[in-house]
Design brief:
About 45% of the residues lie in helices and about 10% in strands. It is mainly alpha-helical and about 60 residues long. It has a two-stranded antiparallel sheet.
């Protein structure tokens, strides 16, 4: 049985992975999901994460 958690339930390692993946997407030209003055992909990703608009789901398996 896997456990799916919302973004607010992520730990720091999951957050780092999500931000890195999203920053890479933005750097390759993916559309930005919020209005922002930031130009650095990692900062854009961080603002999107904080706004809760990223379409990422964290799935954890059984331990």
């Amino acid at each position: 049985m896997s456990d799916e958690r919302p973004m607010s339930g992520t730990n720091r390692y999951e957050k780092a992975r999500i931000l890195g993946a999203r920053a890479l997407q933005v750097s390759y030209g993916a559309p930005v999901l919020i209005e922002t003055d930031q130009t650095e992909p990692i900062l854009v990703a961080a603002e999107e994460y904080d706004a809760g608009v990223l379409p990422f789901t964290v799935r954890r398996g059984e331990r």
